[in-house]
């Protein structure tokens, strides 16, 4: 299209020149004196011809780069150029052709100038060279700018413009071409779709047997790849160890949700008397929950039995999928060679048990482990979320240090199970989440018995003669110091990726400042090595994200798929006593991104039907954030209430579809449910009306 436009302007400009010659206003051949009445016309036409010539060169520079960038990819693949060289090779090929064409134009222009114009030869050469180089440079600039503008138009509803500005060393050449451009530049999705015979032992080796690694390995094997999975778990400082399946199955989502459910059952027992239940030993007396004790050891045993069944199921699943399971730690020897180390200084396995394997492609999915603060006694006398679910005896009075969702979830179920629990918070709870919802969660936890120690940090932990832990802590504002004894101290202050022992430098894989791996659509700075899940930089640390990444990556490499994981609107749920589900923008981030005048907050504070009979004090909350700049598209979803995970998962599809508020309100609610509130919001924050809802 651009080339045709250039040709049209070329012939139209030639026609104008013929008119010039006919009217004797400007003529290169006879050099007629144009003083007098023709002077203005002469100056105007000279400017016209110069700018027309420059514009033609700009368009020709564009027309050369546009098609040849695509043609280059085709020929480089056709001649079996190594896939790692295709992106840069395509650009060099396009640049070379552009230079050739502009050189031809320069020669022709030089011949015309020297034939029909008089003047110093050097001046003509410089003028012609500047025109050619300038036209080519502007063409290159316009070519790049065109795709950036097109990307901004295609991504106007995805709000990923910030990612375009980030310096990411894993971002490959032409990676900015998404949407329609992805069809022309598919190399952004994986290293190469073509598979040739290779001398490696495996088509794919996955380092890490967590949710993401298992997902990728089984899908790749299903699509015909020869796959091996390496997984090895170092015991925690407390001594906790677990089997195949990663953090989620063993010390994360699964046990956390079961302990949370146990705490909810305790609330149901307390409130069951209001629904007519009574104690058989005391006829006529409503069942109030008093006198019923929770047995920690029984719950732990039952949950651990379930987890062991899942571990065995994963091993059986790998065997059924014909994936080789290697119980060893993996580290790089070179980009395609992995050292498998099964030795462990703190385990029963001793000695040097190392083997070497090679792979065409490698996926890093090692995840992370909880951090300890650098204070005296932290590791010796405390535990983390890796240990809490396998404690042999009840934790008793517990101090939870941290304000993340892991900290609040642990504190919530410990309180619900009947243990005195305090949470030490340095600044705010649930940083990064919607502040309004975060504060409501904190208030609800206070109302249900959890105590908060605000604006404080621990300084040291000592072991007392009676086995308790004496914690010395300090207020960050007043610098006043305090001491208190606890049976258990649990740190939930963040996680660190397990990249230190991988020897990533030997493979050419770069890491960010947080020690996580730079990735672009799961590909690292080494084109045949990928990273997914918690170990990848700026990827949500959520199990479903890792599972989806592994599944879709395997399909792209071996199944010819071109679909990517959408990390912009990932639904998530915090399993605190008052559960919290969210998708998309928080209120603070929406205001910072689009401006307070361009967004609207629809909200409601309501009481679920099941809370009314026992007169439970907890009030639930629903909020939608709407962007008026984008046809009132819903960009934020926030729900506080029972079964938040189930409610939020259902509405996640609406975010993928990009529904507007009017389309959202077309949904008919299911009555009487809490989810019904999300399609019945009418009051805005801007109106100042009370969001509390009465009636059904």
Walkthrough of the structure:
The chain is of the alpha/beta class. 39% of the residues lie in helices and 17% in strands. Strands 1, 2, 3, 4, 5, 6 and 17 form a seven-stranded mixed beta sheet that branches. Helix 1 (2-22) runs antiparallel to helix 2 (39-78), helix 3 (86-116) packs antiparallel against helix 4 (121-154) and helix 7 packs parallel to helix 14. It is globular, with a radius of gyration of 33 Å.
What is the strand tally?
Answer: 22
How much helix is in the residues? 25-40%
Structural class comes to alpha/beta
- Taking the alpha carbons of the first and last residues, their distance comes to 61 Å
Radius of gyration: 33 Å
As a percent range, the share of strand residues is: 15-25%
- The overall pLDDT, averaged over residues, is 81
Low-confidence stretches: 14-47, 79-91, 141-165, 173-190
Biggest β-sheet strands, sense, barrel: 7 strands, mixed
Question: How many helices does DSSP assign?
Answer: 18
What general outline do the C-alpha atoms trace?
globular
